């Protein structure tokens, strides 16, 4: 099951809908959760990466993504 999806624009001057979608992927049986990253170009959405967290993130957990550059 996935959590709420966060959209991150590809750049400050990216076209509308161009960027990345990030979401927690929760395992109901309490195995380690992961973060899914998808590349979005309008309605064209392609998987980019999965980050295995090694811990269970509870359903409904909210997170913020901060640009550290």
What can you see in these coordinates?
The chain has 69 residues and is mainly β. Helices cover 0% and strands 42% of the residues. The chain contains no helices and four strands. Strands 1-2-3-4 form a four-stranded antiparallel β-sheet, with no helix packed on it. The N and C termini lie far apart (31 Å). The relative contact order is 0.27. The mean pLDDT is 86.
Gist of the model:
This protein is an all-beta fold and 69 residues long.
Helix content: under 10%
Helix and strand composition category: mainly beta
Would you report the number of β strands?
4
Which sheet architecture does the biggest sheet show? Answer: 4 strands, antiparallel
Distance between the termini: 31 Å
Write the SSE topology.
Blueprint: E1 6-9, E2 18-25, E3 34-41, E4 44-52
Q: Any descriptors?
A:
69 residues, 0% helix
